[in-house]
TrEMBL record:
<keyword id="KW-0418">Kinase</keyword>
<keyword id="KW-0472">Membrane</keyword>
<protein>
    <recommendedName>
        <fullName>histidine kinase</fullName>
        <ecNumber>2.7.13.3</ecNumber>
    </recommendedName>
</protein>
<feature type="domain" description="Histidine kinase">
    <location>
        <begin position="452"/>
        <end position="645"/>
    </location>
</feature>
<dbReference type="InterPro" id="IPR003594">
    <property type="entry name" value="HATPase_dom"/>
</dbReference>
<feature type="coiled-coil region">
    <location>
        <begin position="372"/>
        <end position="433"/>
    </location>
</feature>
<keyword id="KW-0067">ATP-binding</keyword>
<dbReference type="GO" id="GO:0005524">
    <property type="term" value="F:ATP binding"/>
</dbReference>
<dbReference type="InterPro" id="IPR019734">
    <property type="entry name" value="TPR_rpt"/>
</dbReference>
<keyword id="KW-0812">Transmembrane</keyword>
<keyword id="KW-0802">TPR repeat</keyword>
<feature type="transmembrane region" description="Helical">
    <location>
        <begin position="394"/>
        <end position="413"/>
    </location>
</feature>
<keyword id="KW-1133">Transmembrane helix</keyword>
<dbReference type="Pfam" id="PF07730">
    <property type="entry name" value="HisKA_3"/>
</dbReference>
<dbReference type="InterPro" id="IPR011990">
    <property type="entry name" value="TPR-like_helical_dom_sf"/>
</dbReference>
<keyword id="KW-0597">Phosphoprotein</keyword>
<dbReference type="GO" id="GO:0016020">
    <property type="term" value="C:membrane"/>
</dbReference>
Length: 645
């Protein structure tokens, strides 16, 4: 790899020197742009070489006397600066490009500038400015460049995730997906799938998280993007840290193999190694897991697992030191200390424990810090008396004290982590409660408005039309009409009848009278009969399980869910038969709406947008339920919903 970088450097140096000696005619505009693309490819390979190339590129760009070439060169320079964390210089450079593109009124390049500017602010953790420029990029493109729109929404997703606003992140992620087309780079599609998986992981929907991370891994593997594939496998493996340590190990080892090849000294690699060390210790201290090891790479004995874990920690420590990651260094030393204590190497365990505690003492209580100071004092006293005491006695004291301290700090650290997890859980619950209150208000408002409109239509406009019809009938009896006029009069009365029937249907859909008077079962039966009579589709309505009544809100929500799903089947599925099933147990309510229609591919499920589907999801979420959809081309569709009411 380093030889390849050297060849590129020599090649470009030759091109640039030739250009400077022989004038602009030696490099065409097309060659200049090829040079930009090559710089973008190798920009993270060798900092010094790339910076030299960028400086030469800027000299050549200026010599062209073409503002558009200069603006594009400035963007390349900014991107390189951004990659090396020089965000101040990158932002200043992009602003130069923005001035040029504003003068030229080049909307496409201006949108790209805004997107990269948003990315720079995001890397500075300036979320307000990042959001501002991502939105400006979207506004400037006006849907002409879907790739920039997808990138900008992807950036907004990352900003929301960084702020722990996962619902907002999911919203932007779905918008990025909405604008994805055949021209969208597969790498960007895979990245958005990975972020969606991460969001669902934080939302604790681990099934969906695993699904999207698996899709992202498959796509990264296809395009041979090894670093992002390793990052995705790392995220996916974390889903199984608690539930399936052996599967977690398999995924971590796969990620480690890729990182060893392409990024052996990155922070991502150190994280992967540290977690692998933790997992090996977990397996080594659990006989059940130890017996079920199937991966040939994973050792089958406790001592070998301990030894491999120690090598992982040592390598992670080396990487974090090189990256000047103090927090990472202290954590690696702490884990190494715990492992050495388990192995019986108490002397090194003690020494590493003291170092880790000094580096990161804010994680521990004052009581534990005092215990360390006391132990250090005892050690010094012991050393002063060592000449007059037996060596065995000193060793016994040191070993016993180290073990005790090791256990204290281990449990203190674990308690700290548990408290942090509980706090995060409470925050998530509060956010969820707030969201449910919003959904509750919105849905109840909808139902109240439906009820009001239905009443106005039925009592007001319906009564008026009925009165009008009666007046026409009375008028006819007092009029002398020709046969032609009598026939036309009867047709008008028939049209008025049809209008009254249609009006009653609208009022019935807005707020079914049967639901209010007779309850959910009768309302569903009436609804299914009306669908069958109006569409000529066989609708089989079933009610099974225990006989109990839901509360009013739940009955309305269940009716609306079935109504929306059935109407969707009638409109889109081309089905000849629909099955509607309502099953009640003592504590749960299950809904199944199934048709024998044309169905659709599972991969298109997320692209089916509409307020109706959104309302279904809101109602299911409000009732603490889950949705499972099974479909396929020409295989019909089955939607199964389980509600906790």
């Amino acid at each position: 790899m380093r030889q390849f970088q050297l060849i590129l450097f020599v090649l470009f140096s030759g091109i640039f020197s030739g250009f400077s000696q022989h004038g602009k005619s030696k490099m065409t505009e097309e060659e200049f742009h090829e040079m930009r693309y090559e710089i973008e490819k190798i920009q993270t390979s060798n900092k010094d070489s790339v910076f030299v190339l960028v400086d030469d590129m800027m000299k050549i760009a200026n010599s062209f006397k073409d503002d558009q070439i200069l603006a594009k060169a400035l963007l390349t320079k900014a991107d390189v600066r951004s990659k090396y964390k020089d965000q101040v210089q990158a932002i200043a450079t992009i602003n130069e490009a923005i001035k040029i593109n504003k003068r030229q009124n080049n909307k496409a390049e201006l949108a790209l500038c805004y997107y990269i500017l948003g990315k720079c602010y995001a890397q500075k953790a300036d979320h307000i400015e990042a959001t501002k420029y991502y939105l400006k990029a979207i506004e400037t493109t006006k849907e002409k460049d879907s790739v920039i729109i997808v990138k900008a929404y992807s950036g907004l997703t990352m900003v929301s995730v960084a702020q722990a606003n996962y619902q907002n992140g999911l919203k932007y992620n779905l918008l990025a997906e909405k604008y994805t087309t055949k021209s969208t780079p597969e790498e960007l599609i895979a990245h958005n799938l990975m972020i969606k998986g991460v969001i669902y992981r934080f939302l604790e929907d681990f099934k969906k998280a695993d699904t999207y991370l698996s899709k992202a891994a498959t796509l990264f593997k296809k395009i041979n993007n090894k670093f992002n594939l390793a990052s995705t496998l790392n995220e996916q493996s974390d889903l199984y840290l608690e539930s399936d340590p052996l599967k977690c190990i398999d995924l971590k080892l796969e990620a480690k193999a890729l990182l060893d090849e392409i990024a052996p000294e990155r922070s991502t690699t150190a994280y992967c190694l540290s977690i692998l060390g933790d997992l090996y210790i977990t397996v080594a201290t659990n006989d059940s897991l130890l017996k079920n090891i199937k991966n040939p790479i994973v050792p089958k004995t406790k001592i070998r697992l301990f030894n491999d874990a120690e090598s992982f920690y040592l390598r992670a420590l080396d990487i974090t030191k090189k990256n000047n990651n103090i927090q990472g260094v202290s954590e690696s030393i702490l884990y190494l200390s715990i492992l050495q204590g388990l192995k019986g190497d108490y002397k090194n365990a003690y020494e590493n424990l003291v170092v880790a505690t000094k580096m990161n003492d804010s994680l521990f209580s004052q009581e534990n810090k005092n215990a360390i100071a006391k132990l250090e004092s005892e050690k010094e006293v012991g050393e002063l008396k060592a000449a007059n005491e037996k060596k065995e006695t000193f060793n016994a004291i040191l070993i016993g004290s180290s073990i005790a301290l090791l256990l204290i700090l281990f449990f203190a650290y674990r308690n700290f982590r548990n408290k942090r997890k509980v706090q995060n859980l409470k925050i998530s619950e509060l956010e969820k409660d707030k969201q449910l209150l919003t959904v509750d208000a919105m849905l109840k408002g909808q139902e109240e408005e439906r009820s009001r409109i239905a009443k106005d239509l039925h009592d007001g406009l319906g009564g008026l039309l009925s009165g009008t019809k009666l007046s026409f009938i009375n008028m006819k009896e007092n009029l002398i009409l020709t046969p032609e006029n009598a026939e036309q009069f009867d047709k008008s009365l028939s049209m008025l009848d049809t209008t009254i029937v249609d009006l009653r249907k609208v009022a019935q859909n807005l707020m079914p009278e049967a639901l209010v008077k007779f309850g959910l079962n009768e309302a569903l039966r009436d609804f299914c009969n009306s669908i069958q009579s109006s569409s000529k589709i066989t609708v089989n309505c079933q009610k099974i399980g225990v006989n109990r009544k839901l509360n009013n809100t739940a009955e309305v929500f269940v009716y609306r869910i079935i109504q929306e799903l059935t109407n969707n089947a009638v409109k889109h599925s081309k089905a000849t038969e629909i099955i509607v099933q309502l099953a009640l147990s003592e504590t749960k309510t299950s809904i199944t709406v199934e048709d024998n229609g044309i169905g659709y591919e599972n991969t298109n499920l997320q692209n089916k947008n509409g307020s109706g589907l959104d309302n279904i999801e809101y109602r299911v979420q409000y009732l603490n339920g889950t949705i499972d959809t099974e479909t396929g081309l020409n295989k019909g569709t089955s939607v199964n919903i389980e509600l906790n009411v």
